[in-house]
Automatic annotation (TrEMBL):
Residues 3-300 form the Enoyl reductase (ER) domain. Keywords: NADP, Oxidoreductase. It comes from Corynebacterium pyruviciproducens. It holds the Pfam family ADH_zinc_N. This is NAD(P)H-quinone oxidoreductase.
Length: 302
């Protein structure tokens, strides 16, 4: 089969043989994620026993039925083996490129913002990188559950896009200090930056607030003012979806489908696919994300 290697080269690879509890998916489209870029750069290796072929999500056909897959790797290919608990139905009305871009973001946002941090109606959430794939998903889910949404982004164009999706407070991180703007007010913070924002995030946290860090774009080592965090009774979690075991992923997938899929089918959630490229142009997809030229998600058509 045709596939894309970790080095972003088109290669011939053996068609995977499904193991126990797995199904073979004929891939129609694959979603592009920042985790793929990190793997290409050598910073996010696949878990032991997982293919080095890129791709954390895909949509296609399993036993001739349309399906979506949450993956630990292998989505940038014509076929991929998928644990059965990580397969999801395609919501009515979605194209394959749209379907291919929702597994990673919805499972990440639902598991972290709602299952872990427990965002409630009327609370304030701060979402960093509001115009990206995770951010555009998080805005929509938070607004659906009647939370107040603050976002950071690096341009007015991106902030305008966040506003269109329902964001209430718009902060240009290049011109404003979000910690001062939101001091002591954020019940939940969804953080893709990591070390660079650690101190500011703690200052922005409300009392009993919860920060969930899911990315390291701003580095891996930061200084934590434990006294400030303690005085707020605050908590910080750091999670990764890819390295969880199949049982844990199946639990998250089932909960996401239960709570988010009805929103999608009711037209209350848009997939935010801004660009669709052929599989062979995976390197261009990565360049667009690294250069910050897009909002939302990119899909690769197989």
């Amino acid at each position: 089969m045709k596939a894309i290697s970790q080095e972003l080269e088109v290669i011939d690879a053996p068609t995977p043989e499904p193991g126990e509890g797995e199904k073979l998916m004929k891939v129609a489209a694959a979603g592009v994620n920042r985790g793929d870029i990190l793997q290409n750069q050598g910073h996010y290796p696949p878990p032991k026993g997982i293919t080095s072929i890129l791709g954390l999500e895909a949509a296609g056909y399993v036993d001739d039925e349309p399906a979506i897959a949450l993956l630990a790797g292998g989505g940038y290919a014509e076929y991929v083996a998928v644990p059965e608990g990580q397969l999801m139905p395609v919501p009515k009305g979605l194209t394959m490129p749209e379907a291919a871009t929702i597994a990673e973001v919805t499972c990440t946002v639902w598991s972290n913002v709602f299952m872990l941090a427990g965002l409630q109606k009327g609370q304030r959430i701060l979402i960093h990188g509001g115009a990206g794939g995770i951010g555009t998903c998080a805005i929509q889910l938070a607004k659906h559950f009647d939370a107040e949404v603050a976002v950071t982004a690096g341009s007015q164009r991106k902030l305008d896009h966040c506003k269109e999706l329902g964001a209430d407070i718009l902060i240009n991180y290049k011109e404003q200090d979000f910690a001062e703007e939101l001091k002591n007010s954020c019940d939940v913070i969804l953080d893709i930056i990591g070390a660079k924002y650690l101190d500011q995030n703690v200052r922005a946290l409300a009392y009993d607030g919860h920060q969930v860090t899911i990315g390291m774009q701003g580095g891996v080592k930061g200084e934590l003012n434990i006294g400030r965090l303690l005085s707020k009774r605050g908590s910080i979690s750091a999670t990764a979806l890819r390295a969880r075991d199949t049982e844990d992923k199946a639990r998250i997938v089932a909960s996401t489908v239960e709570h988010v899929w009805p929103m999608i089918e009711a037209g209350e959630f848009t997939t935010q696919v801004s660009t669709v490229l052929p599989l062979e142009e995976a390197a261009e997809a990565h360049r667009l994300i690294k250069d910050g030229e897009i909002t939302g998600k990119i899909a690769l058509l197989v």
